[in-house]
Amino acid sequence: MSRARAGVRMVQTGLLVNVVLALVKFLAGVLGNSYALIADAVESTSDIVGSLIVWGGLRVAERSADNDYPFGYGKAESLAAAAVGLMLLAAAIGIAVEAVREIRTPHHAPAPFTLFVLVGVVLAKEVLFRRVLAAAEQTGSTAVTADAWHHRSDAITSLAAFVGISLALLGGPGWEQADDWAAIVASAVIVVSGLRVLRPALADLMDRAPDGGVLERVNGAADAVEGVLATEKLKVRKAGTEYWVDLHVQAEPGMSLHDAHELSGKVKSAIRRAVPEVAGVLIHMEPFEGRET
User: To which H or E segment does residue 41 belong?
Assistant: First the structure.
């Protein structure tokens, strides 16, 4: 729960920054005659909506398990991340379509002052990306990771807008569309970011096994418990920032039911000490069959 709250705080910070930057970029784009900057403002607006979705997902995910959801609400975080990924893809399509329309429509070159706006935006978004990504790595949150990459995509689209506007200004008459081509490049970057966010979110929703490091730590902790002769059929799935473990443990065949129960409890404790992110462990006790799996 504390990890979820840390993620919420970073999402709130990003939300406030996005509101300010979206307004600045939109006004600068309208006044400076830059569609790339307006497209960048639209992407920042999607950042705002995305941050709200992530915030809501984290708030739901931190709820304690109950009778209706005995495994907790952690999947709400993955749903939020998937929604952000889909939003990025939708925004990319909208920006590309509008950029093509602008290319076919004659218009004036952007104003030079828009370049200074973009430099400030790129710096602010890159700093925000690094801070949110660091928080995501500490919490193990898929949703906060999605929010971080949303900020990075915004920084890259702003950089693309900077290049496009620079070309339009340096090239002079006939280069006005460079600004719009930059918007198309930005939309391609947003597609990549959207897929990067969507894939791990879908993997969590489909209960894909975590990386081998988590499995090795769980299995190693179980094997190290005195009385455990073998382990097999290890299954681990992720729900939000937590893991749920299912494991078969083999022990001495003549062990009493009471002792088997005590041993399973020791295994659970050992696993949760080794991997604090584990929220629940289900142990199935079996008689040792003379081989290790």
Answer: helix 35-61
3-state helix, strand, coil in the chain (%, to 5): 70, 10, 20
Question: Which pLDDT tens digit goes with each residue over 163-198?
Answer: 877 887 787 777 767 767 877 887 887 888 888 888
Cα-based distances in Å from 74 to 63, 83, 142, 204, 284: 8, 15, 10, 10, 24
Decide: 144 and 7 in contact? Cβ < 8 Å.
Answer: yes
| Domains of the chain from N-terminus onward | 2-205 (1.20.1510.10), 212-287 (3.30.70.1350)
Structure tokens at 274: 């080794």
Tens digits of residue pLDDT in 247-276? 999 999 989 999 999 999 999 999 999 998
Using CA atoms of 147, 151, 154, 158 in order, give the dihedral in degrees to the nearest 10. 180
Q: How many residues does the chain have?
A: 293
CB within 8 A of 227, min separation 6: which ones?
Answer: 251, 252, 255, 263, 266
Look at the alpha carbons of 56, 62, 66, 71 in this order and tell me if their dihedral is positive or negative.
positive
**Cα–Cα distance, 46 to 185 (Å, whole number):** 17
Answer whether 0.85 is exceeded by the pTM.
no
What is the secondary structure of 73-100 as a DSSP string?
A: STHHHHHHHHHHHHHHHHHHHHHHHHHH
Q: What's the CA gap between 286 and 274, in Å, rounded?
A: 23
